[in-house]
Amino acid sequence: MRSSLVLALILAAAVRADTNSPFAVAPLVAEHSPAQPKSSQPVTVAAQVGGAVVRVTLLVQVVDPGNYLRRSDAAFTNSWREFPMNDDGINGDVSKHDRRFAAIVPAELQQHRRLVRYCVDVVDKNGGVTRYPAATNACPNFAYFVYDGLPAWTGSSRPGRTPPLTFSSEFMETMPALHLIARREDVERSQWSQSADRQRFFGTIISDGRVYDHIQFHNRGKASTYVAGKNKWGFKFNESQRFRDRDLWGRPLNNAVKSLSLNACASPWAPVNRGMAGLDEAVSFRAYQLAGVPAASTHWLQLRVIADSEEASTKSQYSGDLWGLYQAVQEPDGAWLRESGLADGDVYSPETGVKHRAENSPTNDVAFQEFMNGSQFGVNESWWRNNLDLPAYYSFHALNRVLGNVDLRPGANHYLYREPNGRWCVIPWDLDMMFIARTHQPGYVAQAQCLEVRALKLEYRNRAREVLDLFCADPRPNGGQVGQLVDELMSFLAPTNQARSWPELDMCLWNYHPRSHARGEFYRTPYRDHRFGGEWIRTLDTPDFAGFGRYIVDYCTGSRGTDDYAPNDGDQRGYGFGFLTIEARDSRIPERPVIRRADTPGNSSSGPLRWEISPFRRAPTNGAGFAAVQWRVGQISAPGLTGYQAGQPRRYEIEEFWRSEPLATATNGVALPPSLCQPRHTYRVRARYLDTTGRFSHWSEPVQFVAP
Q1: What does the pLDDT average to over 261-272?
Q2: Of residues 389, 435, 397, the one with CA closest to residue 416
Q3: Do the beta carbons of residue 667 and residue 651 sit within 8 Å?
Q4: Max CA-CA distance within the chain?
Q5: In Å, what is the CA distance from 487 to each residue of 279, 482, 492, 648, 673?
Q6: Secondary structure (3-state) at 321
Q7: CA–CA gap between residue 622 and residue 628 (Å, rounded)
Q8: Pairing mode, if any, of strands 658-659 and 609-613?
Q9: pLDDT above 50 for 213
Q10: Using H for helix, E for strand and C for coil, what is the string for 540-592?
Q11: With contact defined as beta carbons under 8 Å apart, do 556 and 485 qualify?
Q12: Is there a contact between 17 and 44 (Cβ–Cβ < 8 Å)?
């Protein structure tokens, strides 16, 4: 396949214009080069045609910015220009008589921001005309997009009152761009007219140079649909051309998707968080993943909407292509299951029912209804163990406390995934109301009933202490915990070696946007809020994006310095950390052990790594004895740590790397095989004790080392 290929579609069948002629043309392959042309650059279109061919013609349609042609528009049918295609080794054709026909689209047709559609008519020896793609296809043409690159942009947080900030073209290239081409009236109705709520409109998406033509777009959301002014988007792609996305680190995903959901980074129901730029959702979804809870992945992009002839207006900073910062969130469907390495299984919303049905699953909802009905009552321990993925639920519940998931409720804002073993797993969703130091909704799901069972509550408390030790204890940007997670995600929005940041750009575009419903609320501090079960005051160390990063870290760690936490106390300092500390508290757990390195670091790269632990000590209020000791190793990576690789996901302590089974022998140490750790990478070792009542101690403080 030639490297210049940007689009190759093999059509296994075609619809003939002359249905009375016998079919004499084989399926066709079409391609164009260059992949994404620039202005005044000729484009070669080639078509590999089989069968008895008399004539091949290229049909080209030019779609100018501000004059989008929907498939239903009359001009879509009658505005095609014809160019003869040849197989004579000239005018774009490479070799004579090889059944590869070519034509050159003249350079003057390539203009910045122009969409160029094309299709191919093939006349066979009987006079029959076959069009590729067929007119009946959901996408009845090929297409390419002419683009000269992202321009610089200048805007002010409050025009006329605050100084303008300029975001260079080099800066604009630091964030992936998603272009939507559509009619202005369709865009405005979709985003701002309640009469068009959830109505689908036609447009074209360009991403990574690929054109997804004749897609459908609509607004998203339930109660929050039109709250912020900067609203959510949904895109539906044709089955024959699913969307190919990338992850946060720019790596192509393995599974193409039928839909794309964009959140607006606008905190619609939590204006107290306006200016977080989606950091609240990104941190939350990623934290669930790291702790072993199936959760969606997110990444940021800049949305650009081509609905006018001008790319940017000289009259208003709010006009033009740039719509600002948005966040793509994976839909919890079959593609998400495959991308996450999860087995196919039913996915349900407690609000709307089935989201995805496994291939061999019954077509009824009996299993889901039985599970939901059982979850409402104080069923016994055996039922919960057979029906709920308890380890995943413990992590989910613990992180709800740490992250302040105050909008969670038994009937909303989460999904349920049925694993092949028949157990159900709770999946987090709708995380745009996080890190609040007040209550709002209950903050738990129906399955929280399991914690009324004594044995399960003890297990949950064991896991809660793990989350505190492995995720909440270290606020440093390279400490392998929440401080590092916030630092990593912020780095995507505030790229190094750039004077500006994406939260600043979004502030300039939306803080006083005429369509914004909450103007002037970016980075306001102190912020007096009364939406969440009582008035509270949120403050930022600095009134900017960095201040919000510090806020999240303080919220999730023991930043208060005192042990006077209380749910709903309105004190942001360590609120999530304190809430989970209360739920994890148990005066009868063994004392926290201390470990140390027992071999000589760097002495040998072939011998085992040896560690010692302090003796078991029971709690003063508990007569339980020693049951087991458990060891774990976690890998961490971040800038400044040995083994870190730029551009790759950082590693975190809470991620499972290695842990021993509980060892029932009262030994004072452990030897780790050298093959366990990758040379010149950074790790943390910890240990904890288990007593005869099933209570684990806190994990020891870590000992950090670099593997030889």
Answers
A1: 94
A2: 389
A3: no
A4: 97
A5: 10, 8, 9, 14, 32
A6: coil
A7: 16
A8: unpaired
A9: yes
A10: CCCCCHHHHHHHHHHHHCCCCCCCCCCCCCCCCCCHHHHHHHHHHCCCCCCCC
A11: no
A12: no
Query: How far apart, in whole angstroms, are the C-alpha atoms of residue 473 and residue 450?
Result: 27
Q: What is the layout of strands, in order, in the sheet containing 703-706?
A: 658-659, 626-636, 682-691, 703-706
Task: Count Cβ atoms within 10 A of the Cβ of residue 602 and give its class: 0-12 exposed, 13-18 middle, 19 or more buried.
Answer: exposed
Position 450, amino acid: C
Residues 634, 682: Cα–Cα separation, whole Å: 9
Tokens of residue 17, six digits: 């214009």
At 505, give phi and psi (nearest 5°): -60, -45
Cβ contact 532:575 at 8 Å: no
**Who contacts 358 (Cβ-Cβ below 8 Å, separation ≥6)?**
344, 345, 346, 418
Confidence label for 646 from pLDDT (cuts 50, 70 and 90): very high
- Strand 177-181 to strand 298-306: parallel, antiparallel, or no bridges (unpaired)? parallel
- Locate 654 and state its tokens: 């809470």
Beta strands in 49-170 (DSSP E): 53-63, 81-85, 100-105, 115-124, 129-132, 142-145, 153-155, 165-167
- Could you tell me if 507 and 680 are in contact, meaning their C-beta atoms sit under 8 angstroms apart? no
For residue 128, the SS3 value is coil
End-to-end CA separation in angstroms for the chain: 45
* 153 token code pair: 């942009």
Q: Are 61 and 84 in contact (CB under 8 A)?
A: no
Q: Which two tokens stand for residue 225?
A: 């649909």
What does the pLDDT average to over 690-703? 97
Taking a C-beta distance cutoff of 8 angstroms, is the pair 522, 157 a contact? yes
DSSP-assigned letter for residue 437: S
SS3 282: helix
The per-residue pLDDT for range 82-105, each reduced to its tens digit, is 999 999 999 999 999 999 999 999
Residue-by-residue DSSP string for 472-493: SS--STTSSSHHHHHHHHHHHH
pLDDT at 361 over 80: yes
**Cα–Cα distance, 261 to 696 (Å, whole number):** 41
Output phi, psi for 121, to 5 deg. Answer: -100, 130
Instruction: With beta carbons less than 8 A apart as the criterion, state whether 18 and 128 touch.
Output: yes
- Could you give the dihedral angle defined by the CA atoms of residues 545, 551, 556 and 562, in that order, rounded to the nearest 10 degrees? 160
The confidence score (pLDDT) of residue 11 equals 37
Burial 162-187 (b: 16+ CB within 10 A, else e): eeebebbeebbebbebbbbbbbeebb
CB contact burial 16-41 (16+ within 10 A = b; e otherwise):
beeeebeebbbbbbbbbbebbbeeee
Find the helix or strand (DSSP H, E) in which 169 lies.
Answer: helix 169-172
CB atoms inside a 10 Å sphere around CB 678: 11
Query: Cα–Cα–Cα angle for 460, 463, 468, nearest 5°?
Result: 125
* Residue 259 structure tokens: 């839909």
Q: Which residue has the tokens 């709800």?
A: 400
Q: What is the pTM of this model?
A: 0.94
Which residues are registered as beta bridge partners of 610? Answer: 671
